[in-house]
Amino acid sequence: MRKLTYFVGTSVDGYIADPDGDGDFFNRWVEPGYAKDMFGEFPETLPTPVRAELGLEGAVARHFDAVLMGRATYEAGLRLGMTSPYAHLDQYVASRSLGASPDPAVQIISGDVAARVRQLKERPGLGIWLCGGAELAGQLVEEIDEFVVKTYPVFAGAGIPMARAGFATRELELTDLKHYAGGQIVSTYARRR
């Protein structure tokens, strides 16, 4: 069965974006060693145009062959003219407000997103990358099998949290931990079921 992995960047205090939804402030902490490791381990998480710019268009997907994002996350790419930001993956956007997809390569999921994710997990293939954001992660928190949390050395103080899931203790097991000279920490947790 495929896994749903929340692969996400966050500040030390758990914010994935500023209050307006912009996460570009994390880019200042992408030093060469960290970037090389992340691009090498997770090349499929780079948008298709960025993969081309970096000469990674032929990089083999190691973890994911599908991406699931919320409407706000998808619209960030749309504002830049990317209707199919991850053309190298099966793309799904969870939205109650988007009607038709602006691109035939992007499927809109409405209604019971958790049920649809369970269906996707039953299909053969690599894992499913939960790309964002907080509302969607909150809706799917019980379906997330793995968390790969890239913590950047910044305290934001406010913004969009990693998830809006409501309080409950959900046990995780630390399965990997890496730290980098630039102060980034990548923690991988598996869900204890």
Automatic annotation (TrEMBL):
- Give the GO terms filed under biological process for this record: riboflavin biosynthetic process
InterPro entries from the xrefs?
DHFR-like_dom_sf, RibDG_C, Riboflavin_Biosynth_HTPR
Q: Domain Bacterial bifunctional deaminase-reductase C-terminal: where?
A: 2-183
Q: Name one GO molecular function term.
A: 5-amino-6-(5-phosphoribosylamino)uracil reductase activity
Q: Name one Pfam family in it.
A: RibD_C
Instruction: Give the protein name, as stated in the record.
Output: Deaminase
